[in-house]
Design a protein that fits this description.
Two copies of one chain form a homodimer.
Chain A (H helix, E strand, L loop, with lengths): L8 H10 L7 H13 L1 H18 L1 E2 L6 E2 L13 E8 L2 H10 L4 E5 L17 H8 L6 E4 L5 H14 L5 E4 L15 H9 L5
Parallel strand pairs in A: 3-4, 3-5, 5-6
Antiparallel strand pairs in A: 1-2
């Protein structure tokens, strides 16, 4: 559909890069480019600088895998965090989601995905060895496994739990149940069953 | 929803810029940032350079309003284009769409929007004066008005036609009708009426 000859090569190059972003295709990339050119000083140049800066300074934390300008990251190096609890997440986006909730004060460990026989992803492809290493530290008392509630996520959770059985840490997982603000009528059977099963006294 | 404290300030800044792109919100911007950090060398740095380069070199053509690294743009300065016909479009994206079709060999004029009483956009806010100037050139014989088939687009088309009446040029507009590959059953009444009205012999 998109022919190179129709716009200048530099614009064309930019459209091609933008269309590689998740959620962007050639059409939305073209719209974005027009918007960017109209807002050169307040959006385009700042975005270019910001991208270059993040590319230069941001990298994964060598302890937990979080993205930060410092290594160890601001969570791993914070003195306010509870070093006895490690929360295992699939991806940095999950870590961010938990941080936004503001309800967890321990440390994190990003394993970088899930086990998947179909995609050929085994334990060695994830940051599981480093998790076992960290969990074997005597200070750590609990590992919360917060992988997604998908089949792959739960498989991974079970695998990690098994590997952690030798160590002295308690392993826990997030509760299943009715989302806060959710309506029962719209919930799937599995969630309703889990919520009923884990009912708690008022 | 999005709290600054949850990620580093540089990442946060980048997420904020990205979420200003059309079609992007905070969530998709975060996904894009994670993708970008994972592909630093093949996507993030090239995108930063490409943005900086376009911001530096690309600007609207002083004749037609097309975006290009050169001024006049490659269309206005091409010797292969028919200088007798000017096609009036609302935006650069429309110019690109026509160029992709490869079916027009004349010159363009981007007026930069439509007249809109509601939004307070009058003739002076659009590049109409420069169009009248260009149309008054003796070489120009036809002005094709290719504004969108919306109410505002058609209002603008009528306004331009009126202003051009004094000059010697012929003004034409794009045909209404059944889209190629379209099914009659899904077409609106207005389009069907127009298509029937403008029927042509086989």
């Amino acid at each position: 559909m998109y022919r190179k000859s129709s716009v200048g090569s530099e614009l064309d190059q930019l459209i091609q890069y933008l269309s590689k972003l998740p959620g962007f295709g050639p059409r939305s990339a073209r719209r974005a480019v027009l918007q960017l050119v109209k807002k050169k000083d307040i959006l385009m140049r700042p975005l270019a600088n910001s991208l270059a800066e993040v590319a230069e300074h941001v990298s994964p934390c060598s302890l937990c895998g979080n993205l930060d300008t410092n290594d160890p990251c601001h969570i791993c190096s914070s003195e306010k965090r509870d070093r006895k609890i490690i929360c295992v997440v699939q991806d940095v986006s999950d870590l961010w989601a938990l941080e936004r909730s503001g309800s967890f004060q321990g440390l994190y460990h990003v394993i970088g995905g899930t086990l998947s026989a179909l995609d050929g992803i085994g334990p060695d492809d994830l940051n599981i060895a480093s998790l076992l290493q960290r969990a074997s530290d005597d200070n750590v008392t609990e590992v919360i496994i917060a992988t997604n509630a998908t089949v792959d996520g739960q498989t991974t959770a079970h695998y990690i739990t098994e590997r952690l059985q030798k160590s002295n840490v308690k392993t826990t997982r997030l509760a299943h149940g009715v989302p806060v603000g959710g309506e029962l009528d719209y919930l799937d059977d599995g969630t309703l069953t889990a919520a009923l099963h884990s009912r708690r006294p008022f």
